[in-house]
Amino acid sequence: MKRFELIQAIFNNQLPREPRQVTATAFAPINVALCKYWGKRNNELNLPVTSSLSIAVPTKGTTTTLLWAPEQTQDNIIFNGKEMDPKSSFVQGITQFLDLFRPQHKWYLQATIKMNIALAAGFASSSCGFAALSLALNNLFTWNLEPYKLSILARLGSGSAARSLWTGFVEWHRGTRDDGMDSHASPLAEDWPALCIGLLSVCETEKPISSRKAMQHTVNTSHLYPYWPEKVAQDLVKIKYAIDKRDFSLLGKLAEQNALAMHATMLSSQPPICYFLSDTIAAIRRIWTLRKAGLELYFTQDAGPNLKLLFLKKDITAIQKFFPSVEIVSVFSGCI
Predict the structure, then answer these.
(1) Interior CA angle at 243 toward 335 and 258, to 5°?
(2) How far, in Å, CA of 289 to CA of 287, rounded?
C-alpha cells in the first residue's frame, strides 16, 4: 500500500478539501523512548520492525499554529520566529507531509512552529513536531479523527511521532498488516508520580547524520541488528512489568541496557555510526560511578549525543548537585 492509499483508507475516501475554520493550534510533547524504535519493515509507511514504549515530557515539545492561506502559492513556515527557506530540508519535510492531504486540490498554509527543545539534536524534535502538525490539521479541518488514526498520520511524518499524541507512558504497537492500519500507539493507564526525567544537554547543534539515515544504514549493514528484534521483545515485556510494579531499579536498568544495545548496533554497522561525544561518555561514566556509590540513577540515549536521566523525586537534590545544568521534569506533574 502507498501513503496516499493509506490516507484514503483513514478518511474513507472522503478527505476534506477545505477547513471549516481559518486557524488552529495544537501542542505535542517530546517522548523519551524507554524501549527503542530502531528499524523499519516498510520505509514508505514508516512501519517499525518492533514495538516500542516511551514516556512523554509534558513541558517540552512543539506548539504549531496553522493559518489557512488560499492566496499563497506555497506553504510559509515560521520556526521560532524565523521565516524558513522553502528549499530547506526542514520545510521540505513539512511540505511533503502536507502534500499527503492535497493530492489533487492544492491549498497552502502558514505554519507558525514554536519548539522549546533543540532541533535535530536527539531530543525527539521530529516526534513532537509531526504530532503537533497532525493535531493542528485535525483541529483546522475538523476531521474529528479517532486518536489511533491520528497516531497513524503522525507516524507517516516521523515514526516515533506516533507516540507523541499523549502524556504519560505510551506504547507504539508494531502491527502486522502490510497496510499499516494496525501500527499505531496507545497510552498506558499507569502513572508514576515519583518518576523524574532529567534532560542533560551535551550538544544542541544538529547531529551529523539524521535518525532516518542512521536507522536504515544500521539495518542494512550491522551484523548485530538481527538480534535487536528479540532484545526489544524481551525488554518490552519486562519494562511494562517494571512500570506495573513500580520497580524503578528494574525500569532504569532495562531502559539503559536497551539504549546501549541500540547504539551497539550502530557502532557495528559499516562504516560505524557513533553519536557519542567525549562529554557524553564522561556523563555516562559519572552516572555509573554515582550508581555504584548508591545513587539510583540511570540514563537513556536516543540518536544524538544528549542524555535523559532517570531517577526518583527523592534524589532530586543529589542529581542537581552532580549535574547542575540538568533540566528536571516530573513527568506526571510538570517542572520541578
Answers:
(1) 90
(2) 5
Residue count of the chain: 336
Q: Is the pTM of this model over 0.90?
A: yes
The answer to whether 58 and 329 have CB atoms below 8 angstroms apart is: yes
10-residue mean pLDDT profile of the chain (336 residues): values are 87 83 97 98 97 96 96 94 94 95 86 94 93 97 96 97 97 97 97 96 92 96 98 98 98 98 98 97 98 98 97 97 96 69
Contact 305, 276 (CB under 8 A): yes
Write out the three cell numbers for 261: 544495545
Look-up of cell digits 552516572: 287
Domain boundary assignment for the chain: 3-187, 195-335
CA separation (Å) from 161 to 130, 131, 203, 295, 301?
6, 5, 22, 33, 17
Dihedral angle over CA of 42, 28, 105, 94, nearest 10 = -70
The class that CATH gives domain 195-335 is: alpha beta
Whether domain 3-187 has CATH 3.30.230.10: the reply is yes
